[in-house]
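Final report, closing paragraph on structural work. Over the funding period we assembled a curated collection of sequence-structure pairs, and we close with a single example.
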Amino acid sequence: MQWNLDPSHTTVAFAVKHMGIFTVRGQFKKISGLVEVDEQGRPVKIDVAIEASSIETGEPQRDAHLRSPDFLDAEKYPQLRFTSTQIESLGGNRYRVEGELTIRDVTKPVTLEAELTPVVKDPWGLTRVGASAEGRLNRKDWGLTWNQVLELGALLVGEEVKFSIEVEAVAPVPAQAQAS
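Its predicted structure, as stored:
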């Protein structure tokens, strides 16, 4: 069974050091995807697409630079993609998710640890589940190498990107419920 990500309740946020002294935070605003689950409701496959042009940090000039060829090159590479390759239960509601992250046509493996919420029925009769994950990556591994070295040796833009993911997925509506 495939559950769809609820884009209005899904966030991919990131944090990067600026000049080694300040943390710039931002997020991607347009995310879509699905989670395939087995008969017991355990996740077995995840596929997510993120619109590169939806990056927002609260500073329009910086956002335009992040969309430019110096960083995401959103016009040439409109999506970032994550596809799981293996999902392993760590016990309880925790999972190790291994997958491939593609940014600017460069695909590299990443590993996340995710924690799922209990499944709930919302006030409209839909079945939902949430998940949270955090991680780090080096942006240079995906060819995002633009930078400037400052006078005292610090980098204008940090190479390590910390990210956090909050996801809400919605189960498909059973056929008999759609017909009524």
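The chain has a mean pLDDT of 89. The two ends are 21 Å apart (CA to CA). We thank the funder for supporting this effort.
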